[in-house]
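Posted in: Protein Modeling Q&A

I'm a second-year student putting together a small comparison for a lab meeting, and my supervisor asked me to include a predicted structure for Neutrophil cytosol factor 4. I've never done this before, so apologies if this is the wrong subforum. The sequence is pasted below exactly as I got it from our records. If anyone can share the structure token output, I'd also love a short note on what stands out.
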Amino acid sequence: MSLPQQLRDESDFDQLPDNVPVTATIADIEEKKGFIVYYRFVIEVKTKGNNKYLIYRRYRQFFTLHQSLELKYSSEAQPGYYTCQLPSLPGKVFMGHKKEIAESRIPELNNYMKRLLCLPTWILLDDLIRMFFYQTESDSQQVPRVLRRLRPPTRRVKTVKPKTDLLSAPRAEAVFDFSGSGRLELSLKAGDVIFLLRRVNTDWLEGTVRDRTGIFPESFVNIIKPLPESDSDEEGGASKSGNHAQSSYSCLRCYLLQPEGIDTRDICVEEDLSTQPSYEDLLSRMRDVFQVEDIALNYRDPEGDLIRILDDEDVTLMVQESKQTGSKVKRPVNQFPWELLVTHAKDLSVYNHED
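Accepted answer (user: helix_wrangler)
Welcome! Here is the predicted structure, written out as tokens:
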């Protein structure tokens, strides 16, 4: 693996742990329907120890990382010996189509990560950087998908029939459906048995199913009998066993309180129950759900009083208080323990003003 030039010249690079990230490249973007619809970047990370894995990050996580690094290492914010010239991060974009914005950011973010990982080795050991590039449990449980920037060349695919001894032939079972893109990629249905012909690259295999031959991503199958030349310890092998969790959908109950009555909604989001959304995301989603612009967000405290939410700190308080009262209310297993009560922004009559 080719290391960034600055790292290769560092005399203390060999002393760094093998799990320190040295390269990171965006393999694709992915739409997520959380509290708001957003796009996140699928990033392939390679470590000093030659390990490879995928992480999933939003632009706001890049922005938070960069702000934290500037406070810690920029000469303007923190004059002193332990400072360095940080790479520049593309700024926030407030207008435009979200997918187009995400696509346009890919080259800039790739350059940002490349320059970031070429900084002096003592910065690479900083927890801010290591945690950003660390593969969390949530990252490792994502359902695999075809990453367009990791697709291998397909023009040299050969149509070779499998061995006649089917019981001894290398084979795999499809764990997920896969729709091939073009005639050279093999479409699969979960449960299909694929007879393996060869390895195309680290992530893709060639095989035959029902007299059709083509290539397919290894992450969509469970290997029953490996190819003779395949290595069970290959990069990323631990993540290719097919034991991936399906995307989790959680339910959020919300109410619109109006003089004429209460409008109750249950909305589904692709977020884990432990996720804490931002105030702005919740406000934007509630405006979209109830089609009302001038609204206020609220929750009920343990005493039953309505409390207005004004910022992220109030959201944190709501989540914390819901844990205290959550055991008293029986909810479906996939429903958030906190609920949102939406009121018109100028309606103060809903609050308890007693001293």
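A couple of things worth pointing out for your meeting: Residues 1-9, 230-247 have pLDDT under 50 and may be disordered. Residues 231 and 319 are 46 Å apart (CA to CA).
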